[in-house]
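Shipment paperwork, digital attachment
Item: protein structure file
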Amino acid sequence: MSEDWHFQHDAGRPAAEMVAERIAEFPAHAPLIAAWAERFHESIPGPVDGMPELLDRLAASGIPLYAITNFGPDFWASFRPTQPMLAHFRDIVVSGNERLTKPDAAIFHLAERRFGHRPETMLFIDDSLANVAAARACGWHAHHFTGAAALAAELRARRLLD
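Attachment content:
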């Protein structure tokens, strides 16, 4: 499966429609194509080392936490309950539900309205440089995520973490 093909799902296209279309195109690979949807959650690595603890500390200190994720709508509902740390977020903008994806500026503007904060008051954290650049272009503070230790140092420098 290509990134471009998968990105359609992040943008809100139903997985069942995508799978049926791809199977029609490549019938000899039908079981493998079907497995993408059937076993999607297995393709997602677990939490990054140190992040559940870092989120626990931020939440315990009263820092309001929000998220923007590129995720297909039909998998999000079953994925979210498997990740207890997501309970710390007051709101999560899910690309597939909104039919807007990072790094499109429109998803950041939607998040500003939903979260109720001006862009210059928010810190966006992402492992994609394109998404970080897009957030900055929208007036957000941004951190390119490379690991929990570097993020913790940034949060301490911003006085968001003891």
